[in-house]
Amino acid sequence: MPFVPVLHAEWIKIRTLRSLPGSLAAMFVVTVGFATLAAVDADDSDPLFSVFFGVSFGQIAAVAFGTTAVASEFRGGALRLTLAAVPGRGRWFAAKAAAIALPALAVGLCTGFGALLVGRAALGPSAPGWAEGVRGAVGCGLHLTLMALFAAGVAAVLRSGVATLSVLVPFLLIVSFVVGDLAGSVADFLPDQAGEVALHGTWDGVLGPWSGLAVTALWAAAALAAGATGLIRRDA
Fold first, then answer.
1. Angle at 216 between CA 202 and CA 231, to 5 degrees
2. pLDDT per position as a tens digit, 166-175
3. Number of neighbouring beta carbons within 10 Å of residue 208
4. Quick check: 44 pLDDT over 70?
5. What's the per-residue H, E or C state across 201-229?
6. Which residue has the higher pLDDT, 86 or 145?
7. Which one of 25, 39, 95, 114 has the minimum C-beta count within 10 Å?
8. Cβ of 211: how many Cβ atoms within 10 Å?
9. Which helix (H) or strand (E) holds 54?
10. What are the CA-CA distances from residue 87 to residues 1, 13, 80, 91 (Å)?
């Protein structure tokens, strides 16, 4: 089966599985909501990050979106039916990744610009400039998309939504918060910490906004490659 019909089929799955649109909606609501709270109570140290502070929590919804989209294939023999229709496992997984990335990017960009507008209104005169803010909004969209793809790859490796979320959610909520202030260390290269550099007006580590997103992209690519390899080599 050609790639485009496979992508269309995967998009139908994304659209009709109720938890997936819900995760995308949560990504927007949580990010913009926490951004509003942070902007209202912000200091002047890094107004750009005050605008995008909610991404630290919104990325959990992005992870849930990517995880659920893949893990649903491993329940009730769904993957066997899918591969019966699309024998090319690599093509199917590429279509699945694209079906995850496209809506995640669209909602992520809407989230970024929504947080920017709300944050600028809340911060008033201390708000970041438009050029810096647009860079942060685009970085927000890319970061959320990459985290969804990273989770999708991990879910393909573990073949379980519960196992994937049990690993990634504590990692994001505990590990990264504990080591996140250790600038200049290995913490800078964690997938969430690297991507969030794009949300800061100033940064102390070795990574900048775009190099940080590149590191997160490498994490996502490695996870997807591992997931694709396992899918090809293991039984459905």
1. 170
2. 999 998 887 7
3. 13
4. no
5. CCCCCCCCHHHHHHHHHHHHHHHHHHHHH
6. 145
7. 25
8. 13
9. none
10. 8, 18, 10, 9
Cα–Cα distance between 6 and 91 in angstroms, integer? 8
The two structure tokens encoding residue 166:
């049990």
Query: Phi and psi for 185 in degrees, rounded to 5?
Result: -115, -170
Do 67 and 164 contact (CB within 8 A), yes or no?
yes
Most confident of 38-42, 64-68, 119-123, 192-196: 64-68
What contacts 23, CB < 8 A, 6 or more positions away? 61, 62, 64, 65, 68
What tokens were used for 60?
């959990």
* Residue 114: pLDDT over 70: yes
pTM of the shown model: 0.93
**CA distance to 24, 56, 161, 170, 192, per residue, from 177 (Å):** 23, 9, 23, 10, 10
Amino acid at 169: V
State the alpha helices, DSSP H only, in the chain. 3-16, 19-40, 47-51, 55-71, 78-85, 89-123, 130-158, 161-170, 176-179, 191-195, 209-233
pLDDT at 227: 95
